[in-house]
Amino acid sequence: MSAAPARRTDLRYRLGLNARAVVGRSYPRIIGANREPSWIVFEAFLPLLGIASYVFIYQAFGTRTIAAIVANDSLTQAEREAAIAGAHLWVNALVATVVLGGTMVAFWLNVLWSMASQLYWEKEIGNLQLYMMAPMNRMALLGGMAVGGMFMTSVRALSTLAAGVIVFGVVFQVADPLSLLAVFFVTLIALYGMGMMFASLYLLWGREAWNLSALMEEPIFFSSGMYFPVGGLFKIPGWGPAVALAGSLVPATLGLDALRQLTLGPASQAAILPLAPVSTELLILCVLAVGFLVLARYALAYLEVLAKREGKLTSRHQ
Amino acid sequence: MSYAVETRDLTRVFAGKKHRFRRKRTADEADEHLGPVTALDGVSIQIREGELFGMLGPNGAGKTTLIKILATLLLPTSGQAFVAGHDVAKDPFPIRQRINMVSGGETSGYGLLTARENVWMFSQFYGVPSRVSKARIDELMHVFGLWDKRDAKVRMLSTGQRQKMNMIRGFVTDPDILFLDEPTLGLDVNAARIIREYVLNWVRSQKGKTVLLTTHYMAEADQMCDRIAIIDKGKILACDTPEALKRMIRTETTFRLEVDAIRDTASFSSMQGVKNFSLTNDIGTNRSHLTFILEDEGPVAEILSLITSQGKKVHSLQKSEPTLEDVFISMVGRGFE
Ligand SMILES: Nc1ncnc2c1ncn2[C@@H]1O[C@H](COP(=O)(O)OP(=O)(O)OP(=O)(O)O)[C@@H](O)[C@H]1O
Ligand SMILES: [Mg+2]
Fold it and tell me: Is A31 part of any domain?
């Protein structure tokens, strides 16, 4: 007696449905970034304050080194000029390292604070039940959140990068733009894949997860080498390499290391202490990206069932 | 025969809260917060396609729990539920394609987006093409009187305007089965009327559209629903057309009294021939309104003498046709507030 028309279920329909869902879910973020433009100015310049202290320290070291070179009488004029050029290159590499770190920090903070706790907050607002009730794929929901977050954060990161270049006079040297783009995007996918996985876990842990984010923030800044070449950790005997390896699980670490190698030219390699060749890092990043996405998918599927069983998918007061 | 919604012995138990902090609790708290709660207790209902079906019950009766299970947001503890012929626990996708849900007092959406953008966003999760979605939204905005506010940010909308937006969200995906959980909660008379009329017309004018509606407003249920289930403490007490429900208590007699405010009502319930009664106090006039469901007219004299013996005056006495509310009082043993 079904008078209601049959609904489509074919592959084309599903692809269309989920593509629309991704666009729909990313829309508030993308619009949000445009709707309050004053906010972009803050977002671009605030991180600069955070990295300025590192930049000044590196610059001060550079100034002292150059002063020492100038004062050294045993050098010939040619040797002196070469040494000074070397010192400038070294300072530029370190400052560039910090600016790149400051740029990528934006993505990491977005993943940690916004992506990860997104589903939890959506539940509090009352959106989550409406999302979960819809026919879209759960990965489209997470994907939409990620795309929106990436877009919004890219605006912020790009402005930080531009401001860093202008304010601190960093010189970048890109020989292989294709690899650079590949590394950047694979890093983002891996990073947001990790965020999607966290989002699923946080759905069940709720408020406690908030503390976990706070707990993770600083140590990961350190172990990922956001503000210094992570290869430096390997020079620390004992715990250094262990911390660096653990930090490498966060996709920002390897991504950042590869980005530094790709933007600073071969002459600066000595200053940035690469962890591994770019190709190796890209490969690992690909594995991490796929791994996190698969984990996120299964984590959410599992936790959705668990939440539906325990009655935790919807906030109580509704 | 296939049903739009069918449940078989559906039961849902919520586990009790774990002791986080050890402290003494009052008996009331212990009752409410600890120990498992049986929100649904062996519910079996069948809702036919094209039906406007109402659920009537006091707070905590299990109405929202039932809707959440049917909307694939909550799993049954035992028993089964089918929506559009599919098992909610095993096969949610085809159900999700065909349903939508709107609850009263919902705060969904993003404050930064406009009303129109919000509804559009939710329609995208159902794969509604943008052009179709936008046309429907504009039309519905006119119908619900929200057209003036179409480009207002959601955080600027009043409660009622927000609820109208939520209703539009429910209709924009063109569902076959719509769950409405107290949709007119907190709306003014006019807004509530617009919503009732639209829902009624939506079900009546199209084939294969089904609505499951929960409400606290007896008149709303009476006026709108083809059939009504009365639910209390997770159990269905009765399920029939509003007329049949009222006929069920026609052999009983309903009396309404307005008297000086009284407190002592215990003696009424022990009176012979009193099936049930309810009491509401009107603080403004300092009077009590009493509704008695009596087996026959016998106890009226006794009731009156009991009231006057307390020194209270009887201001009015009226024998009346049973309303849905009387049915409810007769079954649940208390009125609706
Ligand atoms: N997630 C949950 N965890 C624990 N108990 C719950 C949960 N959701 C509902 N309950 C309990 O289940 C019972 C039924 O709740 P439900 O929300 O279904 O009632 P209702 O009929 O919708 O009431 P109202 O008219 O107040 O909306 C209540 O006792 C409630 O406290
Ligand atoms: Mg309810």
Answer: no
| pLDDT band at A15; cut points 50, 70, 90 | very high
Q: In whole angstroms, give the CA distance from residue A93 to residue A89.
A: 6
Q: In chain B, which residues have their Cβ closer than 8 Å to the Cβ of A23?
A: 124
d(CA A147, CA B180): 32
- Beta-sheet pairing, B86-87 with B78-83: antiparallel
For ligand 1, say whether the CB of A311 is within 6 Å of any of its atoms.
yes
Lowest mean pLDDT among A22-31, A40-49, A249-258: A40-49
User: Is the Cβ pair A27, B122 closer than 8 Å?
Assistant: no
Residue position matching structure tokens 């620390």: A236
Residue A52 parent element (H or E):
helix A38-71
B283: in domain? yes
A256 pLDDT exceeds 50? Answer: yes
The DSSP annotation for B25-57 comes to: --HHHHHHHSS-EEEEEEE--EE-TT-EEEEE-
ipTM over 0.90: no
- Segment B64-91 shows an average pLDDT of 97
Report the range out of A248-262, B100-114, B303-317 with the highest average pLDDT: B100-114
Q: What is the pLDDT of residue A1?
A: 44
In a domain, B87, yes or no: no
Provide mean pLDDT across the span A283-290.
95
Place of tokens 């040797």: A79
Q: B16 to chain A: nearest residue by CA?
A: A310
Say how far residue B217 (Cα) sits from the centre of its chain. Answer: 7
| Size of the A and B interface in Cβ pairs below 8 Å | 122
Torsional sign, CA B203, B208, B212, B218: positive
Residues of B in contact with A36 (CB under 8 A): 112
d(CA B33, CA B29): 6
Domain ranges, residue A216 = 37-310
Instruction: List the single residue in B96, B100, B127 with the smallest CB-CB distance to A20.
Output: B127
- Matching residue, tokens 């994907």: A143
The answer to whether B100 faces chain A, any CB pair under 8 Å, is yes
Chain B hits for A24, CB-CB cut-off 8 Å, are 120-125
- Give the separation between CA A118 and CA A98, rounded to whole angstroms: 29
Q: What is the CATH number of the domain that holds B260?
A: 3.30.70.3100
| Domain ranges, residue B271 | 253-321
